[in-house]
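Input chain follows. Return structure tokens only.
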Amino acid sequence: MLKDFEEALETCTYCPNLCLHACPVVNAEKKSSVAPWAKMSLVQWVRQGLAPMNGESVDMFYKCTGCSACTSACAHGVEVGDVLFAARAEAQSRGIPGPGVEARAVPMGPLEKIRGDSTMKSLRGKRVYWPGCRQAVGDHETLEDTLKVLQALTGEPVSLGPATCCGEAEVSNGRPGVGNNDAVALGYILAEAEQVFVGVGACQAHLSGARVMVESVVPFLLKSFLANPDLVKGTVPGKVAIFEGCHHVRQMGMSDQVVALASRFAEGGVVELRWCGTSSHCCGAGGAYAQTSPDDSRIAGGRILDMAKDSGAELLISFDAECVAHLKASPQAEGVRVLSAMSVIAEMMGLKKESEGGEEEV
């Protein structure tokens, strides 16, 4: 499994730590032992039999959010996250699960189970919004506001997609075979719909990598607002800081579209954070890091909030619902308001008023 990454491992092992500054885990934990160079060297030593594959070494493989910030800073474009995820898979194959990650049995016949699911019939010919695992998103207001915006722009009802995992979490936890099967199974369900919008972030990147035909809400919204500027009935006063989200920036290449869309309703303009674009830091929510290192992942989120405060912005927004939920949970959230960009758009379109008093249900 690790043999496929021999060139990447050798390149990193002999590198003088040039991507150290880019790693959100290093910045959160402030230890050189979690630097990309150190983790890649450890994988190389394990592969060569110079270090044991045990609980201590496997813990280090999970000190990665998969954000690819190190890759952006790397002169050779080495995908450190891919190597560490493969190392997790190697550990799982040897019966060594990650910290706080329970080993689970591989489900038998996932596609057969899906074929008998009545969900497919209920989605046939409909427009659907699939937000990601609802437990991971953790913000029902974001789901409701997104549905309202999509329904207003399409002029038709938009159904909420099935509460089925896309498999990205399984890949992060060293079970790529299961994760890829989950993506295929979800794609099989969603293929019954006429049009599928997805929430942004790691799930979107995973589905796109598995060639599941889905549409991001960001380009759809930007195109709609450019065609009809009157759709935006209000603006947000003051400075609005934008957290683009590492997966949107790097895996999906949509940084400019995210900023352009936010600029449509930010009266004082969009303030990009100190680390933005291809230099953007991860908030700590990705790559199972929030589950295996919860305290340090919150520190990573706190750094994003500190950047927003330093910019003078009172509001920090993101299109990545998982990042929004993670940032809201940070103890440093005081002093800056964190909102889903979809909730802000719903308010600027005058859609939030409809649900006041709790009369409307989505």
